[in-house]
Design a protein that fits this description.
With 320 residues, this protein is an alpha+beta fold. The chain has 11 helices and 11 strands. It has an 8-stranded mixed β-sheet with strand order 1-5-6-11-10-9-7-8. A hairpin with a 5-residue loop joins strand 3 and strand 4. Helix 1 packs antiparallel against helix 5 and helix 6 packs across helix 11. About 4% of the residues have low confidence.
C-alpha cells in the first residue's frame, strides 16, 4: 500500500501551515474584491486539447479517460481553461469580473522537487479590462500577498507584443517568433552561447542569429534603450509597456517590479504582459508565481466571447 508517485497526503502541522497560507490568500483576495470560484476537475477532452488550451508539453502530461458511455474526458491540468469555460457558458456574468480559485490540478509529468502529479494551484484572474490596469492591480495584489506571508519578492515583467516587435525589427519571420521567444526565455538558464546554439538548431539563419546575439549581449537593456535602438516608440507593444510602467511607478512598485525584455513564458495565447515572481533573497531559485495577459480562443462553438476579452491572472503552485 503506497501513494501514487508524485502525490502526497497532508496532515498535522504541515496541513495546518497550508491552511494558514490559504486563509491569508483568501482574505487578501476578498479585500481586493475577487470572488471565490470552484470549477470542475473533470472536463471534456475536446476543451482541454483545443488549439489554445495548452502547450504540447502540457497536453502530453494530461490525464485522459473514457467514461462508461464512451465520452472522452480529462482531468484539468490548470485552472485557466475551466475558468474560460465558465465565462463562455455564462454570458450574463457582468464584466469586468474578478475571481480567485484554489484547487487541485493534475499532470502526468516527471516527478522532481517542485513538480508533482497532483498539486494545489491558486489563480487570481481579471476578465474584461482592455488596458493595463488589470496587470497593475494583480502585481499590487501579489506584492501584498507575499508581504503578508513574510516573503520578500521581485516581479520580473515584460510584454510579449513588444518582444515580438523587437524580433520583427531583427528580421525574425512571423512563423518563428514564438519559437525564438521561448529560446530567449532560457537566457538566464543556458546563457548566450546556449541560446545561439538552440537558435541554430531551430534553423534560424545566420544574419538573424547574429542580430539576436547583438540583442542578448546588450548590458541589461532597459525599455527606453530598446525603443531607441529599434525605433519602436510608437508601436502598440511599446505603448502597452509604457502605460504599465507608469502605473507601476505611480503605485510605488518600481523597486519590486523589474522590466526583463527577454521574459516570455510559454503558451501561445499569452499576448501581452507576462511576469514571474521570485524570492528576493535568492534562497528559493524557482519562481514563486507567475502572471500573464492572454486572449484565449477556445473553439468556434464559443461564438468568440473569449476571443474578444482579455484575461489577466497570476498563479501560485504548492509543491514539495
Amino acid at each position: 500500500m503506497q501513494n501514487v508517485k508524485g502525490t502526497y497526503d497532508y496532515f498535522g502541522k504541515e496541513q495546518a501551515i497550508r491552511q494558514q497560507i490559504q486563509t491569508t490568500l483568501q482574505e487578501t483576495f476578498t479585500l481586493y474584491d475577487f470572488e471565490a470560484m470552484d470549477t470542475t476537475l473533470l472536463n471534456e477532452l475536446e476543451l482541454l486539447t483545443s488549439k489554445y488550451a495548452g502547450g504540447d508539453e502540457i497536453l502530453q502530461e494530461m490525464y485522459q479517460l473514457t467514461d462508461q458511455r464512451g465520452r472522452r474526458l480529462g482531468l484539468r491540468y490548470d485552472l485557466t481553461i475551466p475558468f474560460a469555460k465558465v465565462i463562455a457558458l455564462n454570458p450574463g456574468i457582468e464584466l469586468p469580473y474578478k475571481r480567485y480559485e484554489i484547487g487541485k490540478v493534475f499532470r502526468d509529468g516527471p516527478v522532481k522537487r517542485g513538480r508533482l502529479r497532483e498539486f494545489l494551484q491558486c489563480d487570481a484572474d481579471v476578465v474584461g479590462i482592455a488596458g493595463p490596469e488589470a496587470e497593475a492591480e494583480l502585481m499590487l495584489l501579489a506584492t501584498d500577498v507575499f508581504a503578508k506571508l513574510d516573503l520578500p519578492i521581485l516581479i520580473k515583467w515584460n510584454n510579449r507584443r513588444f518582444l515580438g516587435e523587437i524580433l520583427q525589427s531583427l528580421g525574425v519571420a512571423a512563423t518563428d517568433k514564438l519559437s525564438v521567444m521561448l529560446t530567449l526565455d532560457k537566457l538566464k538558464k543556458i546563457g548566450s552561447d546556449g541560446v545561439i546554439n538552440e537558435l541554430v538548431r531551430k534553423g534560424i539563419d545566420s544574419t538573424t542569429t547574429n542580430a539576436l546575439l547583438t540583442l542578448i549581449e546588450m548590458d541589461n537593456p532597459g525599455f527606453e534603450q530598446l525603443c531607441a535602438q529599434y525605433d519602436l516608440a510608437e508601436q502598440p507593444g511599446a505603448l502597452e509597456v509604457l502605460a504599465l510602467q507608469k502605473l507601476i511607478q505611480n503605485m510605488g512598485l518600481k523597486a519590486t517590479c523589474i522590466f526583463d525584455p527577454f521574459l516570455s513564458r510559454g503558451l501561445s495565447f499569452y499576448t501581452g504582459t507576462v511576469y514571474e515572481i521570485f524570492d528576493a533573497s535568492g534562497s528559493f531559485t524557482s519562481s514563486l508565481g507567475a502572471g500573464e495577459d492572454m486572449t484565449p480562443s477556445l473553439g468556434n462553438w464559443w461564438v468568440g466571447r473569449i476571443s474578444i476579452i482579455r484575461q489577466s491572472g497570476f498563479l501560485l503552485v504548492w509543491s514539495r
